[in-house]
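Suppose you are handed a protein chain with no further information: no name, no annotation, nothing but its sequence. What can you learn? This example shows the usual starting point.
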Amino acid sequence: MSCHCERIIDAVVAARILNATLVIPKLDQASFWNDASDFGEIFDADSFISSLANDVKIIRQVPDRNGKTPSPYKMRVPRKCTPKCYENRVLPALLKKHVVQLTKFDYRVSNRLETDLQKLRCRVNYHALKFTDPILEMGRLLVQRMRAKSGRFIALHLRFEPDMLAFSGCYFGGGEIERRELGAIRKRWDTLHESNPDRERRHGKCPLTPEEVGFMLRALGFGKDVHLYVASGDVYGGEETLAPLKALFPNFHSKETLSSKEELAPFLPFSSRMAALDYVVCDDSDVFVTNNNGNMARMLAGRRRYFGHKRTIRPNSKKLSSLFLNRTSMSWDTFASKVQMYQKGFMGEPNEIK
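A reasonable first move is to predict its three-dimensional structure. Written in structure tokens, the prediction is:
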């Protein structure tokens, strides 16, 4: 879901740099998630086109020429490509071929851009990209039901799906079964790489486990009575993995527990639309917490700053990793004190980021 947003935002910026017409982006339908949703089934296409009319011309599909739809010339640009890079690499091909498709379009635009292009990124992300009415209506219904239960609530974006763990290169204590299962995913998606799980953890690259994020929240002062909305896909290890978090926060909710099968039926077969529902609830939560520093977590943190400050707690994974490894060797008060110390600067205070 968030990966879609990031690529769409950068596609608009690339079209602006090239002074080109943008065809509404095709979404990745061959990833691990195997979701066949197209752009218009997740986002409001009319709003996307009209709200960016002064920035980039956007059309729904490549127009026919002589009664035929021309095949685009496919090319890939380097990661973090600057405006000059686009002008030198892509523009000549666009002028010659007329229609260019940029493939593998993730992290393909530099973060170092002039102010007007950075502002365009914000306009796309926070104004032009709106979910479809069915997604927004269901998302708001979930928020209403959370408010009815608790008034205020925490939303936790829990990335602990098998693909996430496999691609992280980390080890989570599941023994040979875990190594075999996650290794099979890496092999299936051609992402085999040499990884050192201990090094990844020391460098803060590993997502917190459900139990670890539960301990972090309790150490930060969130009590057992707090209502917790958990946004996630299929957690690796299922209920056994979630049990420690549920024991720490028994008021545990999700889109599945808050709605009927009939209400979720239009969204269930589509992971992107299910993630969009979670996005709506997380965005409206009083406190947003993440166990990772991935795309959706970063985009929600930015959105919650952009539309007025709302607290977002990110784990200081580099510092917390060693603390969790040694948790049983210290008292709870010592552990909680260290968590609070390590989390300074990661608690979503208004002055943390200029």
